[in-house]
Amino acid sequence: MSIRLGYQIPNFTYPDTAPEQLFATVVAQAREAEAAGFDTVLVMDHFYQLPGIGTPDSAMLECYTTLGALATATTSVQLSALVTGNTYRNPAMLAKTVTTLDVVSSGRAILGIGAGWFELEHQAYGYEFGTFTERFAKLEEALTIIAPMLRGEAPTFSGRYYQVENALNNPRVRPSVPIMLGGGGEQKTFALAARFADHMNIICGRDEVARKVAALRQRCEEAGRDPQTLPTSFLAMVVPTESDAETAAVLEQVPPDRRSRAFVGPPEQLAEALRTDVLDQGIGGLTINLVRNGHIPGTISAMAAALKPALP
Q1: What value does the mean pLDDT take over residues 17-26?
Q2: In terms of CB atoms within 10 Å, which end of the chain has fewer, N or C?
């Protein structure tokens, strides 16, 4: 599998939209993305909204309930979390969940997964946060269980954090559900991707892309894997604007630590920046979100029309 053009929906707060109307707006975005030529629709796996997008009490839908519902509202797009927080679910249960999504969607699920990072959610919901090292040790153990289960095997495993015994995973509709890792860690994340992943979604600043691509290639070579067998994509926060004044005003509102990941400007200018700064640096595909205006009909289609000519 690969993601050439993905559409992520990270924001569920829309003007004049009551909670009972919220999901209809999400469905409309997914359907517009599908019709416009996006090949994947993704949502975040969070319980609270992230800093820089909203406040913790902003609307946030549970990831896999949302993806399951979107499976019935779409027909061709792949469906994934970007990315599942490993610490929030038992790994065998996660394998079952994403395989069920694959059945419900007739073979369109991707398991996007990462180590987890949002400490506030862990504290509030009672999940152990642990150290950085512990979270990646958990992710490695989880993938050791999940990967064979997604292939229809019944693993037995006893680790420090997780145990399973002949863990069955039926029914399935494909030989395997693909695994995508998301993140930018050049040592741990990329090394796990080289071992377990079918796709790597790189999250970093635009000035870091070339270094990240080189580091991922190195991790693949160290694992004895041909880097060409691990497709990549890049997550970009995209804000289309209509004037220089609007562009400047938007950039002022972007937190300084996120500006290198934000692409702001007219759609054609955005497409050129993404081509030059991302695709030309060795990334194979793009995943964008439209936090500010993706809910406005026509916005997704306009961005697809601008971006598709820039894709490899």
Answers
A1: 97
A2: C
Q: What is residue 20's three-state secondary structure? A: helix
Q: What's the rounded Cα separation, in Å, for the pair 257 and 175? A: 41
In sequence order, the 6+-apart residues with CB closer than 8 A to the CB of 258 are 52, 237
What 8-state DSSP symbol labels residue 37?
T
Residues 6 or more apart whose CB falls under 8 angstroms from that of 20 comprise: none
Q: Are 240 and 303 in contact (CB under 8 A)?
A: yes
Q: Check whether 253 has a pLDDT greater than 80.
A: yes
Q: Residue 176 carries which side chain, given as an amino acid letter?
A: S
What is the rounded CA–CA span in Å between residue 140 and residue 188? 9
pLDDT category at 248 given cuts 50, 70, 90 is confident
- What is the average per-residue pLDDT within 156-164? 98
The boundaries of the domain holding residue 84 are 5-310
Neighbours of 298 (CB within 10 A): 10
Q: How many domains does the chain have?
A: 1
Cis peptide before 148 (omega within 30 of 0): no
Report whether 38 contacts 52 (CB < 8 A).
no
Using pLDDT thresholds of 50, 70 and 90, give the confidence band for residue 63. Answer: very high
Q: CB within 8 A of 243, min separation 6: which ones? A: none
The CATH number of the domain holding residue 56 is 3.20.20.30
Q: CA-to-CA distance for 49 and 132, rounded, in angstroms? A: 21
How far apart are the C-alpha atoms of 221 and 103, rounded to whole Å?
Answer: 34
Q: Measured in Å, how far apart are the chain's first and last C-alpha atoms?
A: 16
How big is the chain, counted in residues? 312
- Show the DSSP H helices in the chain as ranges: 19-36, 63-73, 91-104, 119-125, 132-150, 188-196, 209-222, 244-253, 267-277, 299-307
* CA gap 177, 95 in Å, rounded: 9
Instruction: For residue 183, list its beta bridge partners.
Output: 202
